[in-house]
Amino acid sequence: MTDTSTATPKKSIFDLYPEELESLLIDIGEKKFRSAQVLQWIFQQKIYDPSSMSNVSKKTRAFLEDSFEHKFPEIVSSLSADDGATKLLLKTEKGHNVEAVILRYKNRVSLCVSSQVGCKLACSFCQTGKLGFFRNLTASEIMSQFAIASSIVKKEGKKISHVVFMGMGEPLDNYSNVIKSVNLMIHEKAYALSPKNVTISTSGVVPKIETLSKDTKAALAISLHAARDDLRTELMPINRKYNLDKLKTALLNWQSDTGKKLTIEYILIKDKNCSKTDAKALIKFLHGFRAKINLIPFNSHPGMDYDKPDEKTIREFQKYLSDRSYPAPVRYSKGMEVSGACGQLAAK
Prior knowledge:
The chain is of the alpha/beta class.
């Protein structure tokens, strides 16, 4: 009997860039145009089971079957809200639960993906931070969220056009796997999403922001939520390590290197960060940036003492920014009725 206990785990198809997969297929004697057909099945047709690749040789199908793992996480539950959001609870092969959220809009479909099981940053307004940190997701586990969501919306005659790394976890704390995932999403021979439509959101891991422009063309969003060090440290403990001055320097360098507009995510919390003083501090922080500010009224969830501001406070804060030439749309989160909105993901 063969001992399989020490067998090397199979790679995922998502562990390779298209040119790496092409090279492997050519090495086993496959013609280049046949290799291209395999890529079309995987990345354009989103068919991952080799047995379904009808115009691919038996030899190549057998190679793909033997060489790669084709299992996806189990869908534990799928909850849909009336506003077009669907929250997926997925169980990984290691038994951990993670969440991804499909967000359907009139002219696009976005997917919010998780990059970690839990999160160690412990932001005071976020449910995920209450879980603590368990582990990083692999590139395959991140891409599986995309593949599963794509198969769901494909049945509706739609496709995922935007991806945001705003689910569970801090993406830049799982740097290599996140970079691999976003670069697969935007690779012209893979899923070919527009780089401006794939967004990495970070709480401000400064050393990784400083290398980001060299490693990917994806867009960047900053979870800011306060532009005063004392308040931001209260809301986001990461600010003790990487304060606003350090963060601003890294972001200005990223913008200089990429020429891209920066997105600022700002959750509005009643009696906490939406006074005129806070608006003034935000304008001061934004000096020198080309930026858009997404204002997100706080989404309530159990165990949180915070609440969202009234409509008057929201509009006054927005007006202060827009009067100073900063676009500041108010984003009311989708998926609240299924606990799939911003800050509500807790693998439940």
